[in-house]
Amino acid sequence: MARLADYFVLVGYDPGKRGSGDGQGQILQRFPEKDWEDNPFPQGIELFCQPSGWQLFPEMNPPSFFVAVLTDINSERHYCACFTFWEPLDTTQAQSHPRNGEEEEEEEEPSSPVQPTQLFAPKSLVLVSRLDHAEVFRNSLGLIYTIYVDGMSVALESIVGNLLTCTIPITGGAQRTICLGAGDRQVIQTPINDSLPVSSCSVALLFRQLGITNVLYLFCAALTEHKILFLSSSYQRLTDACRALLALMFPLKYSFTYVPILPAQLLEVLSTPTPFIIGVHSIFQSETQELLDVVIADLDGGTVNVPECVHISLLPEPLLQQTREALSMVLDPELEVADLAFPPSTISVSSLKMQDKEIRAVFLRLFAQLLQGYRWCLHIIRIHPEPVIRFHKAAFLGQRGLTEDDFLTKVLEGMAFAGFVTERGAPYRSIDLFDELVAYEVKRMKAEEGNKQKILRHIKELAEKLYKNENPYPAVTMHTVKKPKEGHHLRVQQKPFPRLDEGLVQWIIDQATAKLQTAPPAVKAEVKCMVPSGPPIAAIMERNGNAMANSARRLEVVRNCISYVFENKMLEAKKLFPAVLRAMKGRAARQCLTQELNLHVQQNRAVLDHQQFDFVIRMMNCCLQDCTAMDEHGIAAALLPLVTAFCRKLSPGITQFAYSCVQEHVVWTNIQFWEAMFYCDVQNHIRALYLDSTEENHVEEEDNQEAKSALEIASEQLRLWPTMSKEKQQELIQKEESTVFSQAIHYANRMSYLLLPLDTSKNRLLRSSGLGDVESVSNSFVTNSIAGSVAESYDTESGFEDAESSDVANYVVRFINRFVDKVCTESGVTNEHLKGLHVMIPDIVQMHIETLDAVHRESKRLPPIQKPKLLRPNLLVGEECVMEGLRVYLMPDGREEAAGGNIGGPPLLPAEGAIFLTTYRIIFKGTPTDPLVGEQVVIRSFPIASLTKEKKISIQAQVDQFIQEGLQLRSCTFQLLKIAFDEEVASESAEIFRKHLHKLRYPQHVRGTFAFTVGQVPKQAMQPKPKEKNPSLRTLSKNLVKNAKKTIGRQYVTRKKYTPPTWDQRSSQHFPEDNEDEISVSEEMDRSTLTPSTTIRPSDKMTINHVVERACCRDYQRLGLGTLSSSLTRSKNEPFRISTVNRMYAICRSYPGLLIVPQSIQDNTIQRISRCYRQSRFPVVCWRNAHTKAVLLRSGGLHGKGVVGLFKSQNAPTPGPSQTDSTSLEQEKYLQAVINSMPHYADAGGRNTLSGFTSAHMSSTGKWGSIRASGRMSSYALNVDIGSRLAGKDLLGAQHNGTPSEATFLRPHRASLYIIGDKSQLKGVKPDPLQHWEVVPIEVFDVRQVKASFKKLMKACVPGCPYIDPSVTYLRSLEESEWLSQIHKILQISVLVVELLDTGSSVLVSLEDGWDITTQVVSLVQLLSDPYYRTLEGFRLLVEKEWLSFGHRFSHRGAQTLAGQSSGFAPIFLQFLDCVHQIHLQFPMEFEFSQYYLKFLSYHYISNRFRTFLLDSDYERIELGLLYEEKGEKKSQQVCKSIWDYIERLNKKAPVFFNYMYAPEDGEVLRPYSNISNLKVWDYYTEETLSEGPSYDWELTQGQVEQVEEDRQDTSAPQTKRRIIWPCYDNRSRTEPDAISKLLEELQNLEMELGQVPERWKETWDKVKASQRSEARQEGSRTPSSLLMSSGLSHHRRSLGVYLQESGVGSSLNLSLDSDTSSTSTPSSGKQGGRRSTSTLYSHFQMSESENRSYEGSLYKKGAFMKPWKPRWFVLDKTKHQLRYYDSRMDTECKGVIDLAEVESITPGTPTMGAPKTVDEKAFFDLKTTKRVYNFCAQDVQVAQQWIDRIQSCLSDA
């Protein structure tokens, strides 16, 4: 029971205190006069009676009533009901006490000469109560006022007395009727449950005033502790609004400042820093303007204003949306039906009171959803004597999946929620509506989500309960309350409110109190019970379906990986590891990890070996790195016991635990994490404490005991507590206290484990990690003096940076102390124990530091984690390792394929392995770091000789490592090694590696290259001072001299010491063109020894024999350019002779010994002529056209004056010395002799006119790269402007596809000799009509440009790093390199020369020094014109003759020695091979060798593996004794010195160099397109094979494949034929060989099985070809299968040959021998059709029958007379107009032909005897020809009909 009212107060206006501003109120009377003991009188009531100030009014206002709320120091609320009315003020009384004597009156006089009017002062009747019954108060005070106004004869004292003595029950729902003794009666209704707030209709009104969104804003602001201010001009409304907001917050209670009505004098309260809910009258609105952080709700205007600086966190979605919808259903039921065509006639709108309860029901549901499962996150730390309960906020947020949600986080951190936990956490208490809702209805709410009807029904049910709580009974009794008469407040002559008799009132109160004391105390029976926990969160949160769907597989991966680690299957574990790390992003996987690791812990300990330990640590770290400091998913909590369990033995007695490696995580520095962990453990121990005690008694109940939660046990204990004896209670308290205490010690240890770094000497600056501001993080209770002092010293101390190492220890001690203080105080540990702990902690920390020091010391000694073992590369015979492998990482460069990149595929790079330096190559061999491809081997290598650039770089090899030094090595075999040295490689080793690399790359002399040193054992690299590998020069020169003596006559050897090759010093720039005397004969030699002699002396015989064997000689004989008969007498009728003038290499050092010169020219003339040309390279013949007998000559460029002299007209007077003149005359004579040698020159009467040739003669042999060009006359319309056209000035109009354009006019005659020279040299040369030769000046690029272009090409094809700039792409950089335009230029010149030769003019190519571009052009011309050079043998000859013998400077251009280092690499020969490759692509059937052959040469001409391409000329090779040694002595050695021998041997073994599509046309001249659009980038530049390195060292790659195959069989997996082929990893041509290689291989296998001696592949191939040819001849008509290897008739191949781009080794040729497939090839199909010469253009009318199949199928045919029906394969050929038949579909031989021209009719036939039985009659048809009738039968009627239709249509077409 409680008093209805505590005090009755009468407050009036205080006239004495009327200062300059507002007046003041004073308490006139209060009853009772002395305070109640349990409830002191509240101060400051007079302020609240007139909140806007005590003022006098000139008129009387009607009485007003409102309730103000005061909160006392114990946060008890007092409700002050104020009833205010006005009384006239006695003026004399008002002025009788002037404050400051006379002055005030004097001041007033002038302003108011008139007497002031009557003023009225307010007076208030106030009831102070702790109960909030506003209506009762209004009625009671109204009654008192009525008695006074109406002057009723009732004593006011008795009424006040009765009012103050009235007691009513607080709860229980009882009705109480009270009577104050004036004929009145009131019923007071108490709520059934006082824990639910009473709101009558204030909530509904609040929503009416502000609207849904605004109220939700206010609601969220109040819960997240913002300041809220209500404004209204009605006091009652302010109170209601505040009350409504509090009611909405149920079950949370507002615990901050709460002043529904704030008096004017107290307005400065609004700037308080704490949150509040305050109401202020709107007249003070202006004063609230400057409040920056207050949310202001204007009730009258219906607005809520949130300042900019305030961010209100709203409810989490979807709750916000659901709440809004529910509210609008309640408040605006019409909304649902607003759009209906036939809205219901009545809509039930709830009464205001009911609506109020419905709104509250919505919010109650909201809280039930927000806090669902909260009881599962309560930790009960103590049960006795008082339950101590903590809420595990992080776990709750984590399980709800709302860790990121601002709103809920703030609510849980707020004071209101702390109060909620304290009040509702207790496991044993009485429960209310909210407890039931959150325990039993959550599932229902989840199920009803989205169903509006059901939600509304639920809301109504809840509202019903809330309403019942406030109004349990229907209101039966009537209130009778007297009210004053109308107009009562206007009576002016009202006497003032009487003074009451205090004694009388006091007497009434005393009597009542005495009566109460004698009455028995009313005991309210509280029904306590165990609070239901409701379903656990996990059950409610439907594990977000989609996120969990794929996690099962991930968890499987995690489990497998862990089991692999513990089974020591490290490779398997390593493969799965990245997947595990990726899976760790998911919570489920992290939990799974902790559970799995738990399984491997026995008796709290798991000892691992180093690698296992490393894996476990990495998984733990990965697991923790995604945990926030809150550890909301309990991952860190689950790992905490594990980090002290897993360990490894470092040395006897020293063990390293996992915790020393997982300290770097923010969660360990979060004191709240430790508190939550501590409470969790304490709860488990306390639960165990009580479980054990109960288990002793009830063994049989074990099963259900286990299931009991700590809260259930606690409630059970609390129920029993009152029944226990004092001793028992004490014992339990003590047990619990010591449990908590022992846990505190345990945690002090744990925290020191995770907070002390392994290396305690290093100050981990813990402050930076958020540890420092612990004070602010937890609401820390520093209660104990020790803790207090620790905290102070901590704050006053300077930072740690400069402190000693002990600081870390001090720091940790303080951190642990603070933790211990907080938890022990909260969980009631005794003070003695707490002090003991404080003493213990420093010792614990110190001890731990000592153990850590030992561990740290030992862990440093540990060998680094075992790295993959270094794989040794395979070496060639004779290749030696110079430097053992250095461990490196091969980093990805700009090529995307290997790194996974956009192309996809596995990331093969970065790979870890080692780099090896051998005498021949740089080799990287290793395995990818990505474990998914970890079993693959990655090899990248290139010959040392091909290294073009080496630069130091610094790279970060792995994400978790430091930047390391590295090297980037670039090779001109288009390879790039970008390596980062492992940290174990000392930088000295890296330096030694670079030095050795450099020494091997640039040997002192060519003898130092691998081709020479092969087989010698090099000195190992790691010696401190490696000696030179080259023998001294003296011994060298001895050897040289010996060799030279063998090969050369004695003439000059005696005079000459060995000097390094002269051409290194004498590059072309050293010969100034105008200095005529400087000629290129070596000065050291005596001129006398060089006198040309016409006969060879006997001593030179040996030399000549050798020379004759040389390639050029064989070729000259083949071309019929002169023979060396044994008698050495020349046949005079030959126009050319072989001159031995240069046999001693005296005239021209860089020419071969034997040269072809015109018959008429003497050797001594030659010597003189040679001076006019650069490097003495005078014109010599190198090839002759077999048809036109035109010759191709080559020479160096002319010296300046020589040129001018040559072209002067003969009769002009010659200034200058006579020598020049005579030389140029001799030159002219020389050229004339060449011209005279041409047979047609004589026929045409010395004039090479066009009439000499018919166009037919000209076009018969040529072959253009297009059909279009071949139709026209292919005479190359030459005119004056050939040169200018080549120089890019196309004066003749457009060219088609790079073919020469038609002539606009023809010259009157064609010159017999065209000299192609450099434009720059031929300036100012006028063409001379009298001469028979003509100069074609062209612009060519020089070597410098080739070098620059090649560099750019390498960067484009093998970029060093990925393109960052999007504008720089592969194609762009390719274009900028201009490589293709140089190739275009070379091809263009070559085609021009071919044309000239083909039309019968001779050509002299005289460019630069005659050894670069000249060689390219001359070689290409021969290749295009002469099919012989397109065979393997011929191409070798071409290269030996034009490149080697004619002195292309391979050593100089390849920078093969130290001397050439500065000049750099110039790929002239590579450019030539690229041109050949372009031609090969355009004419795939013209070459006997494959593309692989070209790549092989490209690789090895710079690899220095063979001696063939070393040195600069034959002279140098002889000088070194190289030229002829391959013929004789050293054959026995395994190592091949010559690349040609090697190719020959390899070609015998396997058809790698052979092109299966080789089917040449006789004597065909090729004219490739040279336009850039027709050129392709050579795949040699871009492809690589990481599985085996470059495939050009055949032995290496062959050996590997076999090994791989053997390995495969061991793994007992089922063998499948399928293989995955990765770009850039596998050798495609080997993994998918072409058809023919495959067939040959099968043949070989069969031969092996049958025990025959296997034949060479070539023999087999030739046999097959021969049999094919003979077959073809027998049949007369060629069949599809013979097509495969036909090399005969041109039309055959042209229309049908398969044109294939070829890959790698051998061609990937998949020819189906099925005649079906060829039916699609029409005469002009695809590229094949595009390659015809004129002669083949119309030949398709004699094509093979297989070609044109309009329709085909199987039919039964009746044989001739008396023969049976037989099935045959019929082919209808529209083109040939015939019907052919074969025995079967596969058959290639035609059995017969029916000519459609002879067919007369087709008629439906009838089955005759022996016809197939099962066939429908209508399937028969007859074909009548002029000779006989054919009877046919088809499978069914449709087929028959189709055949008839097809044949008919053929007939009608004809």
How would you characterize this protein structure?
The chain has 1854 residues and is an alpha+beta fold. 39% of the residues lie in helices and 13% in strands. It is built from 63 helices and 44 strands. The strands form 12 sheets. The chain has a 7-stranded antiparallel sheet. A 7-stranded antiparallel sheet has the order 41-40-39-38-44-43-42, covered by helices on one side. α49 runs antiparallel to α50.
Number of helices: 63
Largest sheet: 7 strands, antiparallel
Sheet/helix structural class: alpha+beta
> How would the global form be characterised?
elongated
Name the strands of the widest sheet in spatial order. Answer: 25-24-23-22-28-27-26
Ranges with pLDDT <50 over ≥5 residues? 93-115, 542-549, 696-706, 763-805, 1021-1102, 1125-1130, 1207-1220, 1242-1308, 1526-1533, 1600-1613, 1677-1746
Descriptive terms for the model:
single chain; seven-stranded antiparallel sheet; 1854 residues; alpha+beta; 63 helices
Strand-helix topology:
Layout: E1 2-3, E2 7-14, E3 24-31, H1 45-49, E4 64-71, E5 77-88, H2 91-95, H3 102-111, E6 120-129, H4 134-150, H5 156-165, E7 167-168, E8 175-178, E9 186-189, H6 202-210, H7 212-223, E10 227-232, H8 235-249, E11 257-259, E12 276-281, E13 294-298, E14 303-305, H9 319-331, H10 334-337, H11 352-370, E15 378-382, E16 388-391, H12 393-400, H13 406-413, H14 415-424, E17 428-429, H15 433-448, H16 452-470, H17 502-518, E18 529-530, H18 537-540, H19 545-549, H20 551-566, H21 570-583, H22 587-599, E19 606-607, H23 610-625, H24 635-643, E20 646-651, E21 654-657, H25 671-697, H26 702-707, H27 710-720, H28 726-755, H29 774-777, H30 785-796, H31 806-826, H32 831-861, E22 881-890, E23 911-918, E24 921-928, E25 938-943, E26 947-956, E27 963-971, E28 975-981, H33 987-1001, H34 1010-1013, H35 1033-1047, H36 1062-1065, H37 1101-1109, H38 1111-1119, E29 1136-1139, E30 1155-1158, H39 1163-1170, E31 1180-1184, E32 1191-1195, H40 1200-1207, H41 1218-1236, H42 1239-1243, H43 1255-1259, E33 1262-1264, H44 1267-1271, H45 1282-1286, E34 1313-1318, E35 1333-1338, ...
